[in-house]
Amino acid sequence: MNTFINLLADTSTDSGNTIVNSAYDAFQNVVHIVMPVIIAIILTVGIVYGILLGIRFAKAEDTEGREKAKQQLINMVIGVVVAAVIAAIVYAVLASGAIRSLFPTSQSGEKL
Prior knowledge:
Elements: H1 2-9, H2 14-59, H3 63-96
């Protein structure tokens, strides 16, 4: 692990810069593959949990139980929306290449 970190830190040569670029490309490829799966899992868990809370809300016999279930439904919706927005932001930032711009290189591949 230390060797990998040292190779990433050594960006003063072309080979070091190539390692950073290839590591970034590998990370970006993994994110492009995994992110849709993560979003689908978040939405699926949210839908199932929402259905269970809806059943709990419908079965509640007193006002206190209904209010508790209603508040849990609101919290669940907020949580799913926040998680989906965070996942979308991460996906958009990686897709835009903004991270790559943190490692500027010249045409010859030298670190600027």
